[in-house]
Design a protein that fits this description.
Blueprint (H helix, E strand, L loop, with lengths): L1 H94 L1 H84 L1
Length: 181
C-alpha cells in the first residue's frame, strides 16, 4: 500500500509536471504568436506609412513639375506673341519709308565711324611728321653747334700758336745774340 501510494503520488506529480509543461508551452506559443502578430502589425503599418509618404512625395514632386510646365507653356506663348509683334513691326518697317531712312542713318553712322578713324590716323601721322621734323632740325642744330665749337677751338689754337711763335722767334734771336756776346 505504501508502495502503491508512493507510485500514485509519483504519477500525480508527473502528470502535474506534464500539465504544467503543456501550459508553459501553450503560454510560450501564445506569447510567440502575440509577439509575431505585433511584429506583423508593426511592419504592415510601417509599409503603409512608407507607401503614403512615397505617394505624398510623388504628388508634391508632380505639383512642382506641373508648376514648371505651366510656367514654361506660358513663357512659350508669350515668346511666340513677342516674336509675332517684332516680325509685324519689321514688316511694316520693311514696307515703308521708315526702314529706308533707318538704313540710310545706319550707313551714315558707319561712314562717320570710318571717317573718324581715317582722320585720327591722319592727325597722328601729321603729328609724327611734325615731331620728326622738329627732331631733325634739333639734331642739325646740335651738329652745327658742335662744328662751330670745333672750328672756334681750331682758330683759338692757331691764334695761341701764332702768339707763341711770334714770341718764340724773338726769344730765339735774343738767346742767339746773347751767346754771341
Amino acid at each position: 500500500l505504501e508502495g502503491s501510494l508512493g507510485e500514485t503520488l509519483k504519477k500525480k506529480q508527473e502528470q502535474a509536471m506534464r500539465s504544467a509543461t503543456k501550459m508553459i508551452q501553450m503560454m510560450k506559443g501564445k506569447a510567440l504568436t502575440s509577439t509575431f502578430m505585433a511584429w506583423y502589425a508593426f511592419t504592415r503599418e510601417a509599409k503603409e506609412d512608407r507607401v503614403k509618404m512615397e505617394r505624398f512625395l510623388a504628388k508634391w514632386k508632380n505639383q512642382g513639375i506641373a508648376k514648371c510646365y505651366m510656367a514654361w507653356t506660358q513663357y512659350v506663348v508669350e515668346e511666340k506673341r513677342y516674336k509675332f509683334l517684332v516680325n509685324r513691326f519689321l514688316q511694316r518697317l520693311n514696307n515703308g519709308v521708315v526702314f529706308r531712312i533707318f538704313a540710310a542713318w545706319v550707313s551714315m553712322i558707319e561712314e562717320n565711324k570710318r571717317n573718324k578713324i581715317i582722320i585720327a590716323r591722319f592727325r597722328v601721322r601729321m603729328m609724327n611728321m611734325e615731331v620728326a621734323k622738329s627732331l631733325g632740325s634739333w639734331k642739325e642744330f646740335v651738329g652745327l653747334r658742335l662744328r662751330m665749337k670745333y672750328l672756334a677751338r681750331r682758330i683759338l689754337n692757331r691764334c695761341e700758336n701764332g702768339q707763341f711763335l711770334s714770341a718764340w722767334i724773338p726769344w730765339v734771336e735774343f738767346t742767339a745774340a746773347a751767346r754771341e756776346k
